[in-house]
Every structure is written in C-alpha cells, then in structure tokens.
Amino acid sequence: MTSVVPNQPHKKAKALKAKSPRPAKALCSECGLCDTYYIHYVKEACAFLNEQIADLEARAHQRSRQLDNENELYFGVHQDMMAARKKQPIDGAQWTGIVSTIACEMLNAGKVEGVVCVQNTPEDRFQPMPIIARTPEEVLAAKVNKPTLSPNLSVLEQIEQSGMKRLLVIGVGCQIQALRAVQDKLGLEKLYVLGTPCVDNVTRAGLQKFLETTSKSPDTVVHYEFMQDFRVHFKHEDGSIEKVPFFGLKTNQLKDVFAPSCMSCFDYVNSLADLVVGYMGAPFGWQWIVVRNDTGQEMLDLVQDQLDTQGVSEKGDRKQAVQQSIPAYDKGVTLPMWAAQLMGVVIERIGPKGLEYARFSIDSHFTRNYLYVKRNYPEKLEDHVPEFAKRIVEQYELPEN
Fold this sequence. Notes:
Layout: H1 10-19, H2 42-45, H3 53-61, H4 70-75, E1 80-86, H5 98-108, E2 114-121, E3 124-133, H6 136-140, H7 156-162, E4 166-171, H8 173-182, E5 190-195, H9 204-214, E6 221-226, E7 231-236, E8 241-245, H10 251-254, E9 275-278, E10 287-291, H11 294-303, E11 307-310, E12 314-315, H12 319-330, H13 337-350, E13 353-354, H14 355-376, H15 381-384, H16 387-393
Parallel strand pairs: 2-4, 4-5, 5-9
Antiparallel strand pairs: 1-10, 1-11, 2-3, 6-7, 7-8, 9-10, 12-13
C-alpha cells in the first residue's frame, strides 16, 4: 500500500521536544517516537496515551480478534501458530537465531532496503543502539535481546530522509503500536513488522539492580530470559548457564525495578506485528511463532526450509497457580532458595506447559498490571485496559485495594 508523504511538522515538533517533558510522563516507554518530528502525532500514536489495539488490529490484519475464541483472546489475530528452531543455529544468538535469519533473508531477497533493529553501544552490551541495517552483517551485529527500554523509533526520520521505500521493523508491542499509528506518514510502499513478545523491561539502572540482586555474577551476564521451566536463565561470558527459580527472586527488592510503562502494558504478545517470534508458547528449547497475516507468512516462507517445526501443544491448568501468585507478588513474598528450588521442580513437572504456560504468563502479568493501573492511574483504567485484557483479568479474584 502506497503511503502519503508526511506534511513534516519538523520545526514545531523539535521545539516541543526541546521544551517539554515526554507527553506520557512517567508512563513513557522510551519507544523513540518523541525523539523524532513524528512527536507531532504522539497523542494519537502513543500506546500509553491512546490505547487502540482493536482498531489497529483491524487495519493491520484486515479483521479484529475473536474474543470468544480462547487462542485469539490471548494471542491475538493469527492464521497459524507453531513451534520452531533453526536446523543450524546462529552462533551467539539468544536462541537459535530465527529473528536474525528472517531479517537477513529479507535483505538478501531484496524484499526490503533496510531493517530497523537494535545493536548495542561499544561501551555497554545492554545499552540499546537502534540502527537501520542495510546488510546481513549489520543485522547479525544486533543479535541477542537488550532487556532495557529501547528507542527503536528514533530512526524514523532517517527512513524518510533516505528515500527508502521498503522496510522491515523489528520491535516490541509499544513500539509497534506507535509505528502502526504513523506508518502512513512514512512514505513507504511496503512495511514488514517482525515482533517479539515483551514484558517487564527496565531502565539501564533498573537492569543493573536486577542483575546484582538475582545473579551470582552480574558483571559476566551476556543475556537472560524467564523460561518455561519457571526459572530465569542467565548466560555468562564463559558459556555457562545459571538458573534461578522464579519463586526465589527477591520480589520485595524488585517490585519497583520494572518500568511503569511495562507495569501498565497489556500487549505482551505484540498484537500488531505481522509475524511474532518468541518462546513462551513452545516446548523448552523451541521458539513460538505466530503468523498474524499474509505479510507474516511471506516472511516465514523465506526461512521455512531452514527450520524444524512442530505443532503447538498444551498441558496442565494454570488458574490455581495464577490465583496464588496474585497475593504473593502483591505482598512481595520471597521464599528461601531451598524452598524455591523445590517448588520449581514440582511445578516444572506438574505445571502448565506449551500454550497453557503462555496463558499462565499472560494471566499473571495482566492481573498484576491491572492492579497497578487501578491503584496508580485509576482515571485511566477504563479506557487504557483493552477489552480482551479485561476478560482475562475477570477470571480471577483480585484484592479490593
């Protein structure tokens, strides 16, 4: 679809940037939109000023999610889901490298002229540095997640100035909502959106506190992830993996470490991307792929022969575990490590798996975030929480205050 060239509110927007705080204030997720002259559109585009997932889903996917279908209620509009892993993993990738491979193949096939992705600064492996990659080498230099707030959209001005017409953007939910809201202003002929699920990002200072509070060797952590075995997996420089049970996290010290934007987010699964690659709905060691529309299928087709795939599955019942987690998190309960290890072993054996684990994770975060918004931004509660999230939260008993 050919887009309209923007009317370029450059001077007004740059003055606004220089003089004003972020329009979303404490809820700003630092997506990068306000670092460009597209700040002119922020009141419409920002996920925390104008929740509009349902409308943007219909525009991006040509239909809205079916709220009476449990999989769509939880995982958004999709035409296919699967578990996958690369037959030949990329060395040093966080998982097997599916996201990086898709981006490289999009460039190699000439489908796009650039890829918006995130490298890190030379000084700090966790400090994000958004770029428009034009070569596979630049894409591969961006492998591994940066678990910090990242201004991916700060490069939007470069897109227009470059004359680029076909673009792939890799991003998380809040970034993609803002992108979808302004995409018709970018002068593009074709936009591809490759998303990752996202929850509980932090500032760089918050990340340091999390590492120092949780890992035995915070200075050697290369990357980490909250995994399906109910443990946080830290990979260290020497290749070793350190595993810390969810239930052993020092919740009383970490409750305030996550960004307010993440505590107010209900788009864990990146509803507006064409294709989503994560892990939480897949068996351990595999990645979870959600194809939302034909554009997403087009991207997946480029790498299909490089993947082992299998169908999604589910096992167990999440609801009791979620209900018990609500007051535990609310009160900052932290178990002794021996008890946390034991509980982790038990839940790994009998707890939810596959798509049911994904629902467990979504339920746990949505109930927590609903309470956060209710307590801290009660005036926003009705308009900010999407209908699908309200239906999910209604399954549980929440504290009154």
